[in-house]
Amino acid sequence: MNKKNLLISFVFLFFSAIGNTQTTKEFKAGHVFYISIPTYMNKTTNLNDVATIQFKSSVKDVYGFVIEDNKEEMLLSELTYATLNDYYEDFIKDFAKGEKKRTVSQPIYKTVNGINFVTADLTYYDKDIKGEIYYAIGLVETKDAFYKVLCWSSIDNKDKFKNDFEKITYSLRD
User: Fold this and answer.
1) Which of 66, 67, 99, 129 is deepest in the core (most CB within 10 A)?
2) Which residues pair with 134 in a beta bridge?
3) pLDDT tens digits, 57-102
4) What is d(CA 74, CA 70) in angstroms, rounded to the nearest whole number?
């Protein structure tokens, strides 16, 4: 191949490459948040398939996890909540629905450092363990996301761990 043909081939490839370039747009993926868990609990898996973080102490028979609902992703799915109360009401109506002896306390609303919280207690009779389960439910709203913080134990351990479960919920920040 002579120099002229080589130069023509090079110019052709150069302009072909320029014609095929695409403009790009950068996106931020994922969302970082922080939560404090008592040292007697460890990170784990297999408690909930959609949880962002899961934790437990098998020795103390306490468990918990956090589910994040990113507001931008919810908006893309055409799912929006005007208030934390709307988010809570939508969640609580179906949680443990149909379980025997299901009781839910009145929700408690707080705002701490610009973060909105709602907490409630839920108990029900579990036929598999033949006893009552206690859930400390915490729903949290930050600027970018809603979170479900669910911690549980047997009803016998409610008084022992309720304060720790509340501290977990109120520690969440992004």
Assistant:
1) 66
2) 123, 153
3) 999 999 999 999 999 999 999 999 999 999 999 999 999 999 999 9
4) 6
Q: Are 144 and 71 in contact (CB under 8 A)?
A: yes
Residue 79: inside a domain = yes
H helical segments located in 42-137: 71-76, 84-92
Domain assignment present for residue 123? The answer is yes
In a domain, 13, yes or no: no
What pLDDT does 152 receive? 98
pLDDT digits (tens, 9 = 90+) for 56-68: 999 999 999 999 9
With respect to residue 50, please indicate whether it lies within any of the assigned structural domains: yes
Residue 49 has pLDDT above 60, yes or no: yes
Mean pLDDT of 124-140: 96
Residue 72: phi and psi, rounded to 5, are -65, -45
DSSP reduced 3-state for 85: helix
Determine if residue 130 is left, alpha or beta; phi over 0 gives left, psi from -120 to 50 gives alpha, anything else beta.
left
Say how many Å lie between the first and final Cα of the chain, rounded. 63
Residues 6+ apart with CB under 8 A from 106: 120
